[in-house]
Write a structure and sequence with these properties.
- The chain has 415 residues and is an all-alpha fold.
- Among the domains are: 102 residues, Tetratricopeptide repeat domain (Serine Threonine Protein Phosphatase 5, Tetratricopeptide repeat, Alpha Horseshoe); 71 residues, Tetratricopeptide repeat domain (Serine Threonine Protein Phosphatase 5, Tetratricopeptide repeat), CATH 1.25.40.10; 84 residues, no CATH class.
- 71% of the residues lie in helices and 0% in strands.
- The protein has 23 helices and no strands.
- Helix 7 runs antiparallel to helix 8 and helix 17 runs antiparallel to helix 18.
- The two termini are 53 Å apart.
């Protein structure tokens, strides 16, 4: 996290003038005020010029130059410069990564009582970065920072209470600190607060408050918030909410959120004013490329029926197969139908029996009838081959999550 406070040299009007210009977005004016002072050795001005280089305000973004200016200010014990330089060393941005230097810089800044530096030092103890892991010490550092107004410290302390990590579980206390951080505009805290309100953890369950917090985080570009906000808006089932939801899903999808891409694909595929089957195929493809099984199956439907693309049963079969391998029961059922009829694949009744059986075992009731029908129609040797295919499928997955071990075939057939 960048230190946001602009630390001013006492009585230095030029630094103040630069701050005024900065707040107005006049970065050139701010640099004009600060650069001469930085060249003359003013620590606050050196820190501020480093900040401009790091953020790319009024000049090209350049972490190496930022590190140089932060170093000059840190040599004069400027707390914010030490903190920001520590961030660069921890991440290896503009300097060679050195977590020990990062730790030492955070510690020096912490000695100057800089709350954000305490938060950053706490993160190192929380995860054992360059130090022996000590979650209780991390909680103490976060508490120090939180009590002094650090939104990062408040957020991290809140998470520790919510997860019983280094402190006893206390959802109300966790929610209290998350709320304090969110009120300062911390994006991660806003997202967490929205989830707390959505599920009623430590706070009153409130869809309204969840939407409000998700929206604030979404505006700041948080992809998860954009996706979750859209889902809550869609639940309200109003035309204007659907329009807003699609806008947020577009933004989340553009950031790579597979669930948002899948939801957009489904929305574009639905009949109505927004129907656009080519767009549906495009978004479903994006989610399918990430291995989302629901999207693989939905995309298979589009190829199977030529919606938004040419009819292509071979591609549909491949997509169903990928989703079926990910244990998606509808896809397993459809793949069984493809193997039974020879659509997109070579006709293979034992394989059809295999996929009907697996879909039925996953609770997809229509597949159970298909399985039973095919079971009695198959010659004994083909049924035995189907049984072996079922067992091979479970063996290849170690029976994970199925409750099926050595008698997998019998259990599948009984479901």
């Amino acid at each position: 996290m960048l230190a946001a406070t602009l630390v001013l040299s006492p009585g230095c009007s030029a630094v103040h003038d630069g701050q005024v210009a900065y707040k107005k977005g006049d970065y050139v004016g701010a640099i004009s005020a600060w650069q001469p002072l930085a060249d003359q050795g003013d620590a606050s001005a050196q820190y501020l010029i480093g900040l401009m280089h790091e953020r790319g305000h009024g000049m090209p973004e350049d972490d190496a130059l930022a590190a140089q200016w932060y170093t000059r200010a840190a040599e004069q014990n400027h707390p914010a410069a030490m903190n920001n330089l520590g961030i660069l060393y921890q991440a290896g941005r503009g300097v060679e990564r050195d977590v020990q230097k990062a730790h030492d810089l955070y510690a020096r800044a912490s000695d100057e009582l800089l709350p954000d530096a305490r938060s950053n030092l706490g993160v190192m103890y929380l995860y054992g970065i360059g130090v022996q892991q000590d979650r209780r010490k991390a909680a103490e550092l976060f508490r120090f920072a939180a009590l002094r107004g650090s939104d990062k410290g408040q957020y991290l302390l809140g998470l520790m209470y919510l997860t019983a990590d280094g402190v006893p579980l206390n959802t109300r206390e966790g929610a209290r600190w998350i709320t304090a951080s969110a009120e300062q505009g911390n994006t991660l805290a806003l997202f967490e607060l929205a989830q707390l309100h959505e599920h009623g953890r430590g706070v009153v369950t409130s869809r309204h408050q969840a939407i409000r917090a998700y929206r604030r985080a979404a505006v700041k570009g948080h992809a998860g918030a954009q996706n979750n906000l859209a889902m809550l808006l869609l639940e309200r089932n109003k035309p204007q909410d659907r329009e807003q939801a699609m806008v947020w899903l577009e933004q989340a999808g553009a950031q790579g959120v597979a669930q948002a891409q899948y939801a957009l694909g489904r929305l574009y595929a639905e009949p109505g004013e927004t129907q656009d089957e080519r767009a549906a195929v495009w978004w479903l493809t994006r989610a399918a490329e990430q291995g989302l099984r629901e999207s693989l199956a939905s995309l298979a439907v589009m190829y199977d029926h030529g919606r938004g693309t040419q009819v292509d049963p071979e591609t549909a079969a491949r997509l169903y197969a990928r989703a079926a391998d990910l244990d998606w029961p509808r896809a397993q059922h459809m793949l069984g139908m493809f193997y039974e009829t020879g659509r997109g694949v070579e006709k293979d009744l034992p394989n059809a029996y295999r996929w009907y059986s697996l879909a039925a075992a996953n609770g997809f009731e229509p597949a159970a009838a298909e399985r039973d029908r095919l079971k009695f129609a198959l010659p004994p040797e083909q049924q035995s081959r189907g049984d072996l295919l079922i067992q091979d499928w479970y063996d290849a997955r170690g029976s994970a999550g199925t409750g099926i071990t050595g008698n997998g075939i019998a259990e599948v057939q009984a479901r």
